[in-house]
Design a protein that fits this description.
Elements: H1 27-35, E1 39-42, E2 59-62, H2 69-72, E3 79-82, H3 88-97, E4 103-106, H4 111-120, E5 125-128, H5 149-155, H6 183-201, H7 204-218, H8 233-247, E6 251-255, E7 258-262, E8 269-273, H9 280-290, E9 294-298, H10 305-311
Parallel strand pairs: 2-3, 4-5, 8-9
Antiparallel strand pairs: 1-2, 6-7
Helix pairs in contact: 7-8, 8-9
């Protein structure tokens, strides 16, 4: 901890900068953890640059319980909490339960274990055997690392600038959704949530095979205009997205110091209202299924022909 360079955030050699604007030092969290029996290691602050008043010494906390406040309420600043785990599965479970985490890092000698663990983490940005690299931000779970560099530039000697005026318009609710209290709908949502992790982790080739089987199940069925698939558009869409998901994959981008692997991650469970006269569900269903999502479709009365055939 003493070897970390604390100072001006505009200096490229600085490793620990000030706290984000508007935040308070995590002294209360550190004191509470120490009272609970945790060990606290803290390095003294060096001479600070002029104008810097939001610095906090690098701190390491070990020996805490999983229910400790320092884990339930992550505090800003150079504060690291050490929590031992017994394997990758337990590490993923602990990381999934942490609130407000946007990035993670995995250290492992076995690259297969590291990649599998990184894929199971809910964070949108995961580093392998490194930390805080200049790489693209993730697109899920708020996977972006906020450096607050713009605020630091204003405080440490850069020319001031004025915030442009904003139009403050009150926001009104766009739509209100009432709970229908339908037990079948609750069962459908629960089933979709239970199937989402397994379906999303299937490789693209496996999902494509299921979509082709679904298209084959619709073949020979007698659709009606009310079903919205009288012309076989759902069958063709299932085959088209089955071919698409087999080719869809991640991408490798070159970044300073190495390469970043960008993968696609499903959103989870989606709800679609099967409206008439335009059956939007027929347009969204194959796409969201192909990309690893689970769907709850609310169909109009009588418009469940394709759904019944898929169920069979």
């Amino acid at each position: 901890l003493r070897g970390l360079r604390v100072g001006d955030p505009t200096d490229p050699k600085t490793e620990v900068g000030p706290l984000p604007p508007g935040t308070h030092p995590p002294e209360g969290v550190v004191k509470e953890a120490q009272e609970e029996g945790a060990q606290v290691f803290q390095a003294p602050l060096p001479p600070l640059p002029e104008g810097g008043h939001r610095f906090y010494p690098p701190t390491l906390i070990s020996g805490v319980a999983p229910t400790s406040r320092c884990l339930r309420e992550p505090a800003p600043g150079p504060l690291l909490v050490l929590l031992p785990v017994r394997g990758p599965s337990e590490a993923v479970a602990v990381a999934s339960a942490l609130p407000q985490t946007t990035a993670a890092a995995v250290w492992a000698q076995d690259i297969t274990v590291a990649l599998d663990t990184a894929d199971r983490l809910p964070q949108g940005l995961v580093w392998l055997n490194a930390l805080d690299l200049l790489d693209p931000s993730g697109g899920c779970a708020g996977g972006a690392v906020d450096t607050d560099l713009d605020e630091a530039l204003r405080e440490f000697g850069c020319p001031p600038w004025e915030q442009p005026p904003k139009v403050d318009e009150p926001l009104s609710p766009l739509v209100t959704v009432d709970d229908p209290g339908d037990p079948e709908l609750a069962q459908a949502v629960a089933a979709a949530r239970g199937a989402a992790p397994g379906w999303g982790r299937l490789p693209g080739a496996s999902r494509a095979r299921v979509l082709r089987e679904a298209s084959a199940a619709l073949r020979g069925g007698h659709g009606t205009p009310k079903d919205g698939d009288s012309d076989g558009s759902l069958q063709r869409a299932l085959l088209r997205w089955a071919a698409h998901v087999e080719r869809a994959g991640g991408a490798v981008q070159e970044v300073p110091g190495g390469r970043a692997l960008v993968t696609r991650r499903p959103l989870g469970v989606m709800g679609v209202a099967w409206g008439w006269p335009r059956p939007l569900a027929l347009e969204l269903l194959p796409a969201v299924l192909a990309l690893g999502n689970c769907v709850v479709v609310v169909a109009p009365p009588g418009g469940v022909g394709p759904a019944q055939q898929l169920r069979k």
